[in-house]
Amino acid sequence: MLLSLDLHDDRPLHEQAADAIRRAIAAGEVAPGDRLPPARDLAVAMQINANTVLRALRELRAEGLLEFRRGRGVTVLRRPDPGAALRQKLRDLLAEAGRHGFEPDDVVAWVRAETQQGRDDHGRAR
């Protein structure tokens, strides 16, 4: 499971860590029933404190994605809904655009232009 955080992201590290794990689950890198690596190993992989990883894991447990079992570690219960993963990608895009000085309305205009271009090219939306 490849997990990385964006050092330029303004969000708290525990939110970024939760999003990285959520994306790994959504992408099928870890499936329902799989055990996650220990928090200490995840912390080393993401180059953050183990307590930060534990906070992210607790957040994902509260969402119903993970289960904590004494002696068995952390297990994936289910995949997040695909819409949630797409909304997260949209939030990431908006954050990246903001770091480059663009407003959300600029992104909306780009989406509209791309959608229109797809219709023009193919007679329907891509």
UniProtKB/TrEMBL annotation:
Domain HTH gntR-type: 11-79
Superkingdom to which the source organism belongs: Bacteria
InterPro entries, A to Z: Tscrpt_reg_HTH_GntR, WH-like_DNA-bd_sf, WH_DNA-bd_sf
Gene3D superfamilies per the UniProt record, alphabetical: Winged helix-like DNA-binding domain superfamily/Winged helix DNA-binding domain (1.10.10.10)
UniProt keyword annotations, A-Z: DNA-binding, Transcription, Transcription regulation
Pfam families: GntR (PF00392)
Gene Ontology molecular functions: DNA binding; DNA-binding transcription factor activity
Identification of the protein by name: GntR family transcriptional regulator
Organism: Saccharopolyspora hordei
